[in-house]
Amino acid sequence: MKYTKTILTAACLLQLGLYSCRKQEPLKQESAATTTATKFAEMKTPQNFKWATNNVINIEFQPIQNDTRKAVLKVVDASGRVYFKKLHSANESFSTNLEVPAHIQSLKVVFAGVQKDFTTSSSKVNLNLK
């Protein structure tokens, strides 16, 4: 009884030591290509591969005649990330170039409770805020 705590502690440390010394198997990696290139010029990419990491979109907002509302004009993506934000009068036209990541496929314009969706595939977008 006198050495029970000491024996249990030693047994736990011995067990921990033995299990921590196990050899870990290396991760298996799948080969991406069957051929290897030795020079940069030998590398081939698919024809439809997009090298651009961002898209530049020209957005034009058409004015609403005789509308004196002022509200925040926002351009957001599907997850709610804001790419552009401005206090805007509805009776003024506005144009801007917006740079967004290439993986973004669609954006949404929000102005005074009105939402308009558009795709980023075209480089110019005309929006009417009515």
Write a brief structural summary.
With 130 residues, this protein is mainly beta. The chain has one helix at residues 4-20; strands at residues 54-62, 70-76, 82-89, 94-101, 106-111, 114-119, 124-128.
What's the tally of helices? 1
CATH class of the domain at 54-128: Mainly Beta
Q: pLDDT average, as an integer?
A: 83
Structure class: mainly beta
Tally of extended strands? 7
Strand residues, percent: 35-45%
**Cα end-to-end separation:** 86 Å
The CATH architecture name of the domain at 54-128 reads Sandwich
What is the overall silhouette?
elongated
CATH homologous superfamily identity of the domain at 54-128:
Immunoglobulins
The strand line-up of the biggest sheet is 3-2-5-6
Order of helices and strands: HEEEEEEE
Query: How many whole angstroms does the radius of gyration measure?
Result: 30 Å
Helix content: 10-25%
Q: Low-confidence runs (pLDDT<50, min 5 residues)?
A: none
How many strands, what sense, and barrel or not for the largest sheet? 4 strands, antiparallel
Please name the CATH topology of the domain at 54-128. Immunoglobulin-like
What does this structure look like?
The structure is a single chain. With 130 residues, the chain is mainly β. The chain has a domain at 54-128: Immunoglobulin-like, CATH 2.60.40.10. Helix content is 13%, strand content 38%. The strands form 2 sheets. The protein has a 4-stranded antiparallel β-sheet with strand order 3-2-5-6, with no helix packed on it. It has a 3-stranded mixed β-sheet with strand order 4-1-7, with no helix packed on it. The longest helix is centred in the first third of the chain and has 17 residues, at 4-20. The mean pLDDT is 83.
